[in-house]
Design goal:
188 residues; alpha+beta; five-stranded antiparallel beta sheet; 4 helices
């Protein structure tokens, strides 16, 4: 019979937890509750502190670490890199200034890049035909802008007169005349 009781006792062991594990679980649970309680108390205490005292503490920290810039062997960091005096001192006043307007049409070609191939007369107006190095033809009339600074001033019987007006930094106008001559067949 004692054997039978032992078997029953062994069969019931799965129903009753081991007391060592139960004690450990209870202790861990209590420890977690205490930690949460302590955390809540400290966060609540921090939230209820005086804001003026907190601000005084933060100002005290700033006052202790004031920054002072020393100029020894250093340049002033607030001086502009390019000063007007330096920019104007070494500028050539006779330098030709570009107008900055966008170039279109015949302004993209300088007179030296074009070859005069024909001169025509329509009504009372003379017309010139020029060709670029690629062989593409263009028509010129009096007043047509050509190149960066040129304007067709006159179309004669065998030539085209182009007047180039350049402006220097000082405002002085430099006028140059370029003549494009019609070459006869066989002439280079």
């Amino acid at each position: 019979m004692s054997r039978c009781l032992k078997n029953q006792k062994n069969n019931m062991s799965f129903l009753m937890p081991d007391t060592r594990h139960a004690t450990k679980a209870i202790f861990t649970g209590k420890f977690c509750l205490v930690c949460v309680f302590v955390f809540c108390l400290t966060s609540q205490a921090a939230a209820t502190t005086d804001p003026e005292a907190e601000q005084a503490n933060s100002n005290k920290w700033v006052e202790e670490t004031d920054f002072e810039y020393t100029m020894e062997n250093r340049e002033d960091p607030f001086v502009p890199f390019i000063s007007e005096k330096a920019a104007t001192s070494n500028v050539d006043m006779n330098e030709i200034v570009d107008s900055g307007e966008p170039l279109t049409g015949m302004q993209l070609f300088e007179p030296g890049q074009l070859t005069l191939v024909a001169l025509l007369r329509r009504d009372s107006e003379n017309i010139a035909m020029v060709q670029d190095v690629a062989g593409k033809g263009y028509v010129l009339t009096k007043g047509t802008k050509i190149g960066r600074r040129g304007v067709v001033k006159d179309i004669a019987l065998n030539s085209v007169l182009i007047e180039e007006t350049a402006v220097t930094r000082a405002g002085k106008k430099i006028i140059t005349e370029v003549v494009m001559k019609l070459k006869k067949e066989g002439e280079e």
